[in-house]
Specification:
The complex is a heterodimer of chains A (315) and B (291). Chain A is an all-alpha fold and 315 residues long. Chain A has 12 helices and no strands. In chain B, helix 3 packs antiparallel against helix 9, helix 7 runs antiparallel to helix 9 and helix 9 runs antiparallel to helix 11. The longest helix of chain B has 37 residues. Classes of the chains: A mainly alpha (315), B mainly alpha (291).
Chain lengths: 315, 291
Amino acid sequence: MVEYLAKQLVASVLVLFLVMTATFFLVKLAPGQLSILADPTMDPGVVASVERRFGLDRPPAEQYVRWIGRMSQGDLGTSLVYGRPVLQMITERLPATLLLGLAALVITVLIGIPAGIIAARWPNSPVDQVLSFIGIVGLATPNFWLGILLIIFFSVTLGWLPGSGMQTIGQPFSLLDRASYLILPAVVLATSTTAEIMRYTRSSWLEVMNLDFVRTARSKGLAEPRVHLKHVFKNAFIPVLTILGLMLPRLVGGSAIVESLFSWPGIGSMAVNSAVSRDATVILGTTLFVSAGVIVSNLVIDVLYGIVDPRIRYD
Amino acid sequence: MTTAVTRKRRTVWQVFFASLGRNKLALFGGIWLVLLCGVLVFEPILPLPSPTRIDIANTFAGPSAAHLLGTDENGRDVLARLIDGGRVSILVGLVAALLTMLIGGTLGVVAGYAGGSVDRVIMRVTDGVLSIPVFFLLLAVVALFGSSITVLVLALSFTRWMGPARLIRGEILRVKELEYATAVKGLGAGHLRIMFRHLLPQAMPSLIVATSIGVGNVMLVEAGLSFLGLGILPPTASWGNMLTASQFYMWSAPQLAVYPGLMILLTVLAFNAVGDVIRDTLDPRRRAGGD
């Protein structure tokens, strides 16, 4: 177990290193220097001083070492547009993104897994066919388009739910108010992951149903619901857990579009805004930050996985 | 030998059309793709208004004989823009998906064939990139390099090769221990020849399926970037950037939001469904077992 965890830890550190290296080369390959990107009209003297401050006048090898050194200490630089520390900008907006991501994850689990189990319980029945059709359409729907349609329907036409922002301006915070703002973006963010988790749950469930111990359980006369809930669930759930872990990058990445569409004040909309204004330090810092976040969560999932599935420990 | 080959090929097509007939969604998808490609290819000779002609006196018009789907906020013909945007979106999807397969396929073949530390390094990197939210990386690339179609295609391909690489590696691991591979090696074939001439063709079915589904996925990402104003930029129409504009007219002209999204949905759906049928056709295990 300890050896397994140590291995995963080393791998995680390597991936982070990889992301830092990749971002460094992106910056080096980009046409023009960082500061020019944000403001092409900048005075050459100012440009030179900015380049010096970022150490961009040093030899590339030295720049690389400094880059890695700074990044691994959590120094993500300052915004070229706002002049504020990038890390501070991120931590300010982090709670909003975590709330949205968590809500989407809850929807994915609470709807996707039961739907997959129902489909697998009666394979090829009309219920299964309808669910699988919904799943296929869900995977092919551009989430921002779904978002626009939901805003048109629920906000513009019916006026039931707000379509933009995080809380009603001028009103004190209330849970109900926050929930009404949260529901549309969370549903949109969760669409493709829900569809996918449903498909995985269904196939994982069907696979386990064909195993010997299920036949044994049935042959000793257990009622069908008991077979499913007691014997199949435990075994079918492990692969689903893995897929949930693999979905984290998608949920985080998807937040960029969804937050922009709904003006949700999180990291995703900040990344999009800084990409539009070509604020390179912010977008690079955000990329590194969310990568580190996902890598750490994957590490946690690996630990959980080692606890849930004893077979892993002997790998 | 020749007769055997031709007979086998006919069976493949028969199987293909048979499973197409059974799968209504894929049948619809196939027809949709054929129609769409026809319209996109023949766009220059179709009797359509210009997609870029602005007519301020005739904005947000409803459907009419002159404008079958009406006009947008600048009085441009919506149908013509849908077709024009479709050409860009599908072209980006196709080229990026093919490039993705080229990168992922090569890495997968090399990793699977070489094994050992080469395999371990390639796979570690692959898993690593898979665990990064690559959409943010795409945003960074666009911010640094500006958005042009070339940048977009390259960025999309370099962030999506991981799935195919793993897939092809698995296939190669499966076939490289078969007798024929040992025989080819015994006959003195070089590594490159074994990898790309003898092993890769065995992995082709998976690669074709992955490409078909990849086109749809790339189109979704491109549409998202274009929607944010970071992909294909106006005045060039794309299904994604047509939706950007529609956002500001949700109250007055919600119909503008419907068409481009519907085009993306139907086309991605079609590529996915056709990919599934190709898999059923080319994979004998699935053909025999059924699912």
